[in-house]
Write a structure and sequence with these properties.
It is built from 14 helices and 19 strands. The protein has 449 residues and is α/β, with parallel strands linked by helices. The radius of gyration is 22 Å and the shape is globular.
């Protein structure tokens, strides 16, 4: 059965339109409950959300669906995605749910599901849940005497704060560091400033006034300009930008230059290798990570494994092959010694652990450890049903690969969430890769169906 609900990171779409309606959320909860209901014990589900207005419609629908399957539900309110993953394990839950569309604007929302081990679900489990939704599962509802109960867990954020702080070296503090933290008016608007403050930093929080509409609005990891300006204005040592559900992070150094996920992964991997902590002597990244990262790691005896785009696929490879560092250029960084999914706050603390060891060096010197090669990513709108099968498009791609040769890299992939083809090229010749990308995008957009 072709998947219609689940994409590369759960279910996502415009709120109050299919598939992000309360009706679909109810059906997904019932279907997921059917899949994860095993044995006679009292089943337990935990649910967190970010700060979108539509969370008020999605949360009660999910609660109703799980309770109707006889599962007890604990709601957390606004809390980061990695907190839900952590608390799923900590509370011995059968299932964890995060209501969020990550870095998307408030109009969108999504549903991310975690298994009892705190990891995102496999493609096979998601397909099984989707099949149950399509077939209908009303016959599996429990008798009225067996309905689940619902409770708000008021100290969920506090539990996560203590968990995150414990990942920072116990013999260090952030004393003397001035840090601007941009919480994207999202799920970490309370926990992130608290963690940094309690570890000793002077904290300047921005984008910490969510109103249901302003999540990721000109702020956060995907739009760090406001953070950059504030770092300069405050003469801060660095800035930290999280996205709406705080599972990704980018940094801004004292010069207001952005430090992306590739640089952060390289920094952490190199530090962990020096300490004998780097499992598998390598890290896992996606096909989008910069060629400069690959060259740097190779020069330092660190292996690089690439996966398709999506932190879920990074995590799967890490688990299958014994790595403990992985992530994406966008700032999803997974450190499996601590977390089962991307955790922007934990990743930031690991970078800060390196900075506190090299106090004499500013962030601009400590965090930029390799020179990225020119990389261009451009989206091509899809005008036909299968533009990549059109002969002019195939010819343009083949010609681009020939022109780039072994000194460059070309990646063409459909978006998992939008009607777009993403065209990325990188190499040492910026002019050449620009020409290659432009030619292929024009070919794709001209291939009408």
């Amino acid at each position: 059965m072709a998947r219609k609900l689940f994409g590369t990171d759960g279910i996502r779409g415009t709120a109050n339109s299919e598939p992000m309606t309360a009706e679909i959320a109810l059906k997904v909860a019932i279907a997921a409950g059917r899949h994860f209901r095993r044995g006679e014990h009292r089943h337990r589900v935990v649910i967190g959300k970010d700060t979108r207005l539509s969370g008020y419609t999605m949360e009660p629908a999910l609660v109703a669906g799980f309770a109707s399957m006889g599962m007890d539900v604990f709601t957390f309110g606004p809390i980061p995605t990695p907190a839900v993953a952590m608390l799923t394990r900590s509370m011995r839950a059968d299932l964890g749910v995060m209501i969020s569309a990550s870095h998307n604007p408030y109009q969108d929302n999504g549903i991310k599901l975690f298994g009892p081990d705190g990891y995102k679900l496999s493609d096979e489990i998601e397909s099984d849940i989707e099949r149950h939704v399509a077939e209908g599962v009303s016959d599996d509802l429990v008798p009225s005497a067996n309905l689940g109960r619902v409770k708000r867990l008021d100290d969920a954020a506090g539990r996560y704060i203590e968990f995150v702080k414990a990942t920072f070296p116990k013999d260090r503090t952030l004393d003397g560091l001035k840090i601007v933290v941009d919480c994207a008016n999202g799920a970490a608007y309370r926990v992130a400033p608290t963690v940094l403050f309690e570890l000793g930093a002077e904290v300047i929080p921005i984008a910490v006034d969510p109103n249901g509409f302003n999540i990721n609005e000109e702020c956060g990891a995907t739009k760090p300009q406001r953070l950059r300006e504030r770092v300069i204005a405050e003469h801060a040592d660095l800035g930290i930008a999280l996205d709406g559900d705080a599972d990704r992070v980018v940094l801004v150094d004292e010069k207001a230059d952005v430090v992306d996920g590739d640089q952060l992964m390289a920094l952490i991997a190199a530090d962990w290798k020096r300490r004998g902590r780097l499992a598998g002597d390598g890290l896992v990244a996606t096909v989008m990570s910069n060629l400069g990262l690959e060259r740097y790691l190779e020069g330092h005896g660190i292996a690089l494994a690439r996966t398709k785009v999506g932190d879920r696929y990074v995590v799967e490879h890490m688990r299958d092959h014994g790595f403990n560092v992985g992530g994406e250029q966008s700032g999803h960084i997974v450190l499996s010694d601590y977390a089962t999914t991307g955790d922007g706050l934990i990743a930031a603390l690991q970078v800060l652990a390196v900075l506190t060891e090299t106090r004499r060096k500013p962030a601009s010197q400590s965090t930029r450890i390799f020179q990225p090669v020119p990389q261009i990513l451009q989206n091509a709108a899809i005008n036909g049903s299968a533009p990549l099968e059109a002969e002019p498009v195939k010819a343009a791609i083949a010609d681009g690969e020939t022109r780039l040769g072994t000194a460059g890299r070309l990646l063409i992939r459909p978006s998992g969430t939008e009607p777009l083809i993403r065209v990325m090229a990188e190499g040492d010749d910026a002019k050449l890769i620009g020409e290659v990308v432009e030619t292929i995008v024009k070919a794709i957009e001209g291939a009408g169906g």
